[in-house]
Write a structure and sequence with these properties.
The protein is of the alpha+beta class. It contains 3 helices and 10 strands. The protein has 2 domains: about 120 residues, PH-domain like; about 40 residues. It is about 35% helix and about 40% strand. The strands form 3 sheets. A 5-stranded antiparallel sheet has the order 3-4-5-6-7.
């Protein structure tokens, strides 16, 4: 493990995720997914193709140019698709649940009443014999009732579980008792 569960090496593969509790007070909980390491990994991976392409320019200009352009396009395209910051804000004073997302293609924000939030869950996707996860929350009442993921991308590791525990713990510790 390398630092705050951001980069994990397991079975020879690199698993990158970032889920962090920014604020946890009785009045407010902020959970953030900021995939900085994913952006760095995608950029370095794409720039390797650019570098190989540039080194081929002298011997095979067409292939070198194609390889460099492909590496650059892959770097920009994958960053645009996969790198999005997500932030979930639970605010007791404003009775508000706010989900903010920011990426290369823009910013979005959705809000719900805090009293409509039932719980957080972990969604799991099984592919190729391994499981990946993402945190989601359940709005139980109102016209927007349903399950909403914090991030669009599934990832390995414990980030989704930590977010679920933090959200449910915050909700349970601050709900009125019957």
């Amino acid at each position: 493990m390398c630092g705050l569960d951001t980069l994990v090496f397991r079975h020879g593969s690199c698993q990158i995720y970032w889920m962090k509790i920014i604020r946890d007070t009785p009045a407010q909980l902020i959970v953030e997914n900021n995939p900085v390491w994913l952006a760095i990994f995608i950029t370095v991976f794409g720039l390797v193709f650019v570098a190989v392409g540039l080194s081929m320019l002298v011997s095979e200009p067409g292939m070198g140019l194609a390889m460099s352009a492909g590496g650059l396009a892959m770097t920009v395209g994958f960053n645009m698709i996969f790198v999005r910051r997500a932030q979930l804000i639970l605010d007791r004073e404003r009775n508000l649940v706010e989900l903010r997302r920011r990426g290369w293609l823009g910013y979005s924000s959705r809000t719900w009443a805090l009293d409509a939030l039932d719980r957080a869950i972990v969604q799991t996707s099984r592919s190729g014999g391994s499981d990946t996860h993402r945190a989601a929350f359940v709005i139980g009442r109102g016209m927007d009732a349903g399950t909403y993921p914090l991030t669009w991308v599934y990832s390995s590791g414990r980030g989704a579980e930590r977010a679920e525990q933090a959200i449910n713990g915050w909700l349970d510790s601050h709900r009125p008792t019957a």
